[in-house]
Amino acid sequence: MITGLNHLASGKIRDLYAVGGDLLLVASDRISAYDYVLESEIPDKGRILTQLSMWWFGQLADLVPNHVLTADVDEFPAELAPYKDELRGRAMLCRRLAMVPVECVARGYLTGSGLAEYEKNGTANGVPLPAGLVDGSRLDRPIFTPAMKAEVGAHDENVTFEEMAERTGDPELAARLKDLTLAVYSRARDIAEGRGILLADTKFEFGRLPGGTLVLADEVLTPDSSRFWPADQWHPGRAQPSFDKQYVRDWLTSPASGWDPRSDTPPPALPEEVVQATRARYVEAYERLTGVKFV
Ligand SMILES: N#Cc1c(N)ncnc1-c1cnn(CCN2CCOCC2)c1
């Protein structure tokens, strides 16, 4: 948290501030695992994921406008000058939007909460799926599985498209969100797959400008808002290794940590080698996707 700025809200990893009539979205180096925010930070994680978001916004600009005014600290308002060094590379100055209260999730592969519903009902958010799918199955076509936003710390509520249309009270908006979410996900999935990363699923947030234009908000297509899987280790029928968090998960569930995920105790601090290996994975994801060296 940056004292001295007008703090509006915080998620597990990022903080939101009001700056004049705009917003400042700041990504920390925090990392979460097993629903805990770990006491260990990953150096540069906030900068890497912010720069990745900015790259994706550029890749998607022909499909959908976004909320970012600038991520260049030298273009930030003068009131932020005292925080330049702290903000450099990890902050986006954004237009303030009327946010749509829906987590717009696209899934290209079946896992997580989508798999759980499928194993019970053969559906995902009420949509029937083919029989015989397993954990990690690639879906013939990406599916839109919206969730109504929950309070910080609670899990979002998966809803059917029809429920979402009803609860937003705007069926046309619901249809537009579905189309945009699937188009953006499909573009990103194809780009990532060409670089050896499977984008299993992702969550978008949208908002509207005063004139009503629908705009892509928040961060996009980072390992925090998406499941990134290394393509060369994809084996449907088991849990897929996470591109970025597998070192953390493996250590936390190993005897070396002395921690039990089933306990109510928070995880211990990570060994330096796990911190550095995890940082390296974030750098690798950034460099493989963007083709740009992280500096
Ligand atoms: N982005 C954006 C945005 C915007 N451009 N205009 C108005 N509101 C928001 C907004 C408000 N909350 N959230 C959820 C993500 N936050 C991340 C940081 O932590 C808190 C939650 C997005």
From TrEMBL:
Database matches in CDD domains: SAICAR_synt_Sc
* Entry EC number(s): 6.3.2.6
| Position of the signal peptide | none
Keyword ATP-binding, does the record have it? yes
Query: Ligase among the record's keywords?
Result: yes
Report the domain of life of the source organism. Answer: Bacteria
Query: Domain SAICAR synthetase/ADE2 N-terminal: where?
Result: 8-262
Per the record, the pathway is: Purine metabolism; IMP biosynthesis via de novo pathway; 5-amino-1-(5-phospho-D-ribosyl)imidazole-4-carboxamide from 5-amino-1-(5-phospho-D-ribosyl)imidazole-4-carboxylate: step 1/2
Q: Report which reactions are catalysed by this protein.
A: 5-amino-1-(5-phospho-D-ribosyl)imidazole-4-carboxylate + L-aspartate + ATP = (2S)-2-[5-amino-1-(5-phospho-beta-D-ribosyl)imidazole-4-carboxamido]succinate + ADP + phosphate + 2 H(+)
A Pfam cross-reference name: SAICAR_synt
Q: Sorted alphabetically, which keywords does the UniProt record give?
A: ATP-binding, Ligase, Nucleotide-binding, Purine biosynthesis
Per the record, the similarity remark reads: Belongs to the SAICAR synthetase family.
> NCBIfam families this protein is in?
PRK13961.1, purC
Protein name per the record: Phosphoribosylaminoimidazole-succinocarboxamide synthase
